[in-house]
Amino acid sequence: MLEPQKSGPALIEEIDRTLTATPTLWWLGHAGFVIRFANITFYVDPCFSTPPGRSRLTAPPLAGGQVRHADMILATHAHPGHLDAPSVTAMLQGSRAAKLVLPKSAADHAHALGIPYPRMSTTDAGLRIEYFKDSLYGRIYAVPSAHPGLDRTGAGGHPYLGYLIRFGRWTIYHAGDCAPYPDLAMRLRPYNVTVALLPIGAGGFTPSEAAQLAIDIEAKWVVPMHYGTFSEDRESDFVAHMLGHRPELRFRVFRVGEKWTVPEE
Fold first, then answer.
1. 166 — phi, psi (to 5°)?
2. What pTM was computed for the model?
């Protein structure tokens, strides 16, 4: 099993000490990221346990109980690799002011997993959640994700979402579990995406599809995810495609537990 670049208390300390003028990201493996802007700390799809039927190729960088500084925890959908109940319940217990952002169609499922309704902020495509801390302001917009199609629940709403996390003029797009669909670029283009976090591999984007979406939405950076944690999907195919066919596009490939600050433009 591969070890994270940084983990445990050392990773928590690094996150807490990071104060930057642009967003900073850490990859937690699979689709999990920490996104921090100044002293605001969001966790997206944190999964530190091993879902049933899966085996880990990379050790988790944290345990849920170590996280006591989360301002918001975002889950893109209800699958256990993205809404990991053991991790999220422990994180909510340690981060007493945090809420879990999730699709409205997943609220009853999350409650059945032990997450109280008052600790949830539900959302759906086209809705916005606002977060204020001190003099800072963050916004979370939801867009539908195709997994592999654009499903809707019987009660309405999309069960699979992507999130556009906006701080000032910087926008991080986390696609969740998403395959390309015809009007995805049209939905994303108005947000001026700075960094696109895209799932590469089976059920997600091919490297060429990821590159094309980045071009279509004029994203400044592309970051692959959803590989190397529970599957043998590799980032090397993505890197080879970008270097060989899209050298004009900027991209960043993470190791688990690695820090990266978005460059000032």
1. -115, 125
2. 0.97
